[in-house]
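::Encoded backbone::
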Amino acid sequence: MRRQRGFTLLEVIVALIIAGLAAVALMQAVGTSLHATHTASMVDQAVVRAKSHLAAATYGRPLVPGDTRGDDGGGFRWHLRIVPVASAAVRPVLGGLRAPSSMPVILYGISVWIAWNEGGREESVRLDTEQVGR
């Protein structure tokens, strides 16, 4: 008896099952990749927003201890905290001469949190810095 060329029904079914499993695995990988890309985008946006709030809080105005909160739009919320960390009295030197009196200097800790909801849970980014004030 001569063997016919081609595939048997069983071989075709096995090939389709393997192709289906590969397609499912590929779709899961694509879904995971899309989720990771979205999460990275949200974190990037949050970091930019946090840097903006840090700059606004520390540029050209005296630091005032306290907490401030608000809605940043786009599903983001922000929280800014300024706390005194340390203080000292210094006598500045101007032109090689020490000033007759000391002036108080305070080191402030500044923290900004940016939070958003993703997938039913809260995610957040926090940036911290310190700045000398009076």
